[in-house]
Fold this sequence. Notes:
By secondary structure, the protein is an alpha/beta fold. The chain is built from eleven helices and 15 strands.
Amino acid sequence: METQIYQSNQLNIKTCARLLQEGEIVAFPTETVYGLGANAFLPDSVKKIYEAKGRPSDNPLIVHIADKTWVDVVADFVPDGAKKVIENFMPGPVTVVLKKKKIVPDSVTGGLDTVAVRMPDSKVALDLILEAGVPVCAPSANTSSKPSPTKASHVYDDLNGKISAILDGGECEVGVESTVIDFTGEKPRLLRAGGMALEKIEEVVGEIEVVRGSTVALCPGMKYKHYSPSSEVFVATADENAVGRMVAFYEKCVSEGKKAVVIAMEENARDFDQNHFYSAGKSYEDYARKLFSLLRQSDDDGYDIVIAQGVEEKGIGSSIANRLEKACGGKFI
Ligand code: TXA
Ligand code: MG
């Protein structure tokens, strides 16, 4: 199959919407990462997503909507907390898990009786879904276990030949996936830290349960390997000696003949070898936006080792910390 790349203009959005209606799968930009979409009401199309990504079929997909009223099309019951999230933060980088309606196929929800719903804050995504006229289920548009794609070229690198089309809307603004909150239990529970800070959501819904250090995967997707480039990733725990440890570790790698690169905040740039340094930017927002892209860059540039600066777990820092932990598989320095 030839994968077509379409620049995002009204004509191409229409073309991609038609492909979705006809049962093809199409990658599209959102404010978080690129998604790989299918018409959520066509189980055969949904299956194509799992095949293209190499995704385990028990890992459910997020259903993307273009209008808040569509929540009731797919969800059976919307508790007050979820209503507040929808009112205050949608469109935006947040996903709510709700009891599903029968109309949502099992292939979308991995057989669960719940459905994850999100309204992306991206004009291109919303136009595409509106034009398609149906909810669009989509995981991130990467090969399973690879870092999520934040540019059309990342999608192309992973899925060329496996999907019909990529709608290119430029670089994603947020860069990490949505925050996922489960509203089907007694208390709202965080399933995945993400682009919307938990603290902000708690301001409107009250306390959200966070299970830390659990070995049990909270949502099916969390038990799988994630965010890994081919290079080996090491993360320096965020404390006052982090930069010193990174410098020492970098020198050790080089002395062993390995090709290593450092990812650190711009303010620490002068402490590192400029030829093998990727800036994470000036803020955690920058770091989040750039992280997946830099992990992919490390492969393109042929590095064996990535040494990444850790972050404090607050605000969007929590989602960066989560992605770094998964990328390094617990290898902290
Ligand atoms: O920002 C995002 O959320 C991006 C863009 C494309 O919208 N999507 C995304 O999808 O990250 P994906 O499939 O890579 O991650 C969705 C996560 C998975 O961990 C999945 O297990 C969980 O949400 N999930 C989906 N439906 C669920 C459900 N019904 N119950 C519990 N977890 C669910
Ligand atoms: Mg994903």
